[in-house]
């Protein structure tokens, strides 16, 4: 299994910015210490790859810096050439992880899951939709026909839903806080809204039902799992009340299903905004460690 990192391409953010950019290096350095893990530097997705999911004028305006200030405000990160580079690397990491999944059964991007990015604009800290670009590229190459997206970030996957709204070859499942961002939504194939302050028991029951619906109705060639750390009780933006044990049980539900069904699976991290940031890193790390414990480092 291959694991891709993007943290060597730093995000230049003003001091005090609320995006927790430091989580990526903390996570990658922690994963690098695991015996089974060997990390690879993410390649950058090319403009033409990005245009498989995004409008050409949106991609070009990001690269040449002519992007509208209003679009950057919705993304919530200041424009810089370094932001565009980092974002293209993050898409490349998910593409690499997807190729690893098709080869070894699983692959990991230690970032990614930027599910608020739609066809011609980003939003909510998301510039490009890494999962959507990877799906479109592998479909174009004839490597996959059908894909499923299991999005367990606490925020609804509106960008992914928009991009695959009319595509019956892609099943989008989003389980998210009903009252949380984004407030203008595009329907996924299956949306499950969760009430504020929901804890482990109810959450896991809703997840079991949703995974059952997916498996009963769809047979993907490849699964993308967005393992957001933001349903955690201590998350600033999450509004749910899952424990770390509950989040690990969540991950195991997804991993078990993919193993039973023999679905290759790509793990991407998505959101996490806990204070202290070490809680978010712990949650992502336990997800990665659990997946590694089920797979051999390179083969199998
Ligand atoms: Zn989120």
Summarize the structure.
With 300 residues, this protein is an alpha/beta fold.
Q: What name goes with the CATH superfamily?
A: Histone deacetylase domain
Ligands in the structure?
Answer: zinc ion
Count of individual domains: 1
Rg calc: 17 Å
Low-confidence stretches: none
CATH topology: Arginase, Chain A
Number of H- or I-type helical stretches: 10
Class from helix and strand fractions: alpha/beta
What percent of the residues sit in helical stretches (DSSP H or I)? 40-55%
Strand order of the largest sheet: 2-1-3-8-7-4-5-6
Overall average residue pLDDT: 96
* Main beta sheet: 8 strands, parallel
User: What share of the residues does DSSP label as strand, in percent?
Assistant: 5-15%
CATH class: Alpha Beta
The number of distinct β-strands equals: 8
* Helix and strand element order: EHEHHHHEHEHEEHEHEH
Protein described:
42% of the residues lie in helices and 13% in strands. It has 300 residues and is of the alpha/beta class. The protein has one domain: Arginase, Chain A (3-Layer(aba) Sandwich), CATH 3.40.800. Strands 2-1-3-8-7-4-5-6 form an eight-stranded parallel beta sheet. The longest helix is centred in the first third of the chain and has 24 residues, at 81-104. The mean pLDDT is 96. Zinc ion binds at residues 153-155, 228, 230, 270-271.
């Amino acid at each position: 299994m291959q694991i891709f990192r993007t943290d060597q391409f730093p995000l230049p953010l003003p001091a005090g910015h609320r995006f927790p950019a430091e989580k990526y290096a903390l996570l990658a350095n922690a994963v690098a210490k695991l015996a089974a893990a060997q990390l690879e530097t993410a390649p950058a997705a090319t403009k033409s790859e990005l245009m498989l999911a995004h409008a050409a004028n949106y991609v070009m305006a990001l690269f040449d810096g002519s992007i509208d200030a209003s679009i950057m405000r919705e993304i919530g990160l200041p424009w810089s050439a370094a932001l565009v580079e980092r974002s293209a690397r993050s898409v490349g990491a998910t593409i690499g992880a997807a190729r690893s999944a098709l080869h070894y059964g699983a692959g990991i991007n230690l970032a990614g899951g930027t599910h608020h990015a739609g066809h011609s604009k980003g939003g909510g800290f998301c510039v490009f939709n890494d999962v959507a670009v990877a799906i479109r590229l592998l479909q174009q190459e004839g490597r996959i026909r059908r894909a499923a997206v299991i999005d367990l970030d606490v925020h609804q996957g509106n960008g992914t839903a928009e991009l695959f709204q009319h595509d019956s070859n892609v099943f989008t499942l989003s389980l998210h806080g009903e009252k949380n961002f984004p407030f203008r939504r595009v329907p996924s194939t299956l949306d499950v809204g969760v009430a504020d302050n929901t804890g482990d028991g109810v959450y896991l029951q809703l997840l079991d039902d949703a995974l059952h619906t997916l498996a009963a109705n769809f047979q993907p060639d490849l699964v993308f799992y967005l393992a957001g750390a933001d349903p955690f009780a201590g998350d600033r933006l999450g509004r749910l009340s899952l424990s770390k044990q509950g989040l690990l049980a969540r991950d195991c539900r997804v991993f078990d299903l993919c193993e039973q069904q023999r679905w290759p699976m790509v793990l991407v991290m998505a959101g996490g905004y806990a204070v202290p940031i070490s809680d978010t890193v712990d949650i992502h790390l336990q997800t990665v460690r659990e997946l590694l414990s089920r797979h051999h480092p390179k083969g199998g």
